[in-house]
Amino acid sequence: MLDNPRSPRVRAVAKLANRAARSETGLFLLEGPQAVSEALTFRPELVVELYATPTALERYTEIGDAAVAAGVDVEFVTEQVLETMADTVTPQGFIAVCHQFPTSIKKIFANEPKLIAILEEVRDPGNAGTIIRAADAAGADAVIFTGRSVDLYNPKVVRSSTGSIFHLPVAVGVTLTDVRERAKFAGMQILAADIKGEDLLEARNSGLLSEPTAWLFGNEARGLTEEDLAMADRSISVPIYGHAESMNLATAASVCLYESAFSHRA
């Protein structure tokens, strides 16, 4: 059992909370039973190391079974060691170290996608992770992070995705110009989510949302620039019928993605 929070091995895991260490090693941190379970179920080959407290493994026996089935050894650690490794204040008994696994943008568009989320300069990790989760739930084919967006493997992005990061392809580090060119070649329309755009309900009623669509979402504070908006075919706004000043980006993105999902299945 690992019981020394100052050991080099523990420190190496803890360093993965920092982007520099993630970039250098090509690894990232995974915390909590839900995320670890999803990794072992959907992408076990990515799991390099798996740590757990005895109490947590006793409570979540299915994770131990999944680790055995995947050929992944579970290393027992003390609560203190787990707290040192974790990015969160109150870790939930499990931590895994995984290989990063971005998908190439070429591969995404080669699969003839019908629904994609593009994140341009989305900086809040909680929003980014929640959009991945929403895209997964809506049956989207992929999510694309441009180079100006938050790091996909930021621990808060990973936690906010609640395991959806392992369910659908995610590309990173691309330019919006490249995404636009590939989307157009693949026959997809690009719809920019923008407060000054056309009403989403009208877009739905016109049949616009039944087409293969790449939704473009911008920065939480500033939205999309005029240059960004010019790359889209249309701009669409989510109507606010009450007195709210605005909608959270991830909430608005969820609405847009689901509207397309409904239209594709109508």
TrEMBL record:
The record lists the membrane-crossing segments as: none
Q: Which family does it belong to?
A: Belongs to the class IV-like SAM-binding methyltransferase superfamily. RNA methyltransferase TrmH family.
Q: Which UniProt keywords apply?
A: Methyltransferase, Transferase
Q: Which organism is it from?
A: Cryobacterium zongtaii
Instruction: Please provide the Gene Ontology terms (biological process) for this protein.
Output: methylation; RNA processing
The identity of this protein, by name, is RNA methyltransferase
Top-level lineage group? Bacteria
- Classification lineage: Bacteria, Bacillati, Actinomycetota, Actinomycetes, Micrococcales
**GO CC annotation:** cytoplasm
Q: Can you give the residue ranges of the RNA 2-O ribose methyltransferase substrate binding domain?
A: 29-104
GO molecular-function annotation terms?
RNA binding; RNA methyltransferase activity
State a single Pfam family of this protein: SpoU_methylase
Keyword Transferase in record: yes
